[in-house]
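Researcher: Next sequence.
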Amino acid sequence: MVDKPIISIIIVNYNVRDFLEQSLISVRRALKNISSEIIIVDNASIDGSVAMLKQRFSDIHVIESKKIEPKKMFQKQMTLRKNLVLKLVSPK
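Model: Next structure:
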């Protein structure tokens, strides 16, 4: 990750640990030479997603949130970053 990324990838996660892990591997590969950041917003998962993120992807910013409706979660996180490109991804 770099100080001033031009792309912010925000992934909202809710109990899809294995899909999230595979998504992150793919996203990292795609962003290999691009100034970027990855932010995971976990929507109160109980499947060990946050523990997996902290163990395997410690450089990714994780926001642990209480359970909120997905549409509201996306709207809330749109205000997180104001970079050149913002892409919202669901690992489902």
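Model: The chain is about 35% helix and 25% strand. The radius of gyration is 12 Å.
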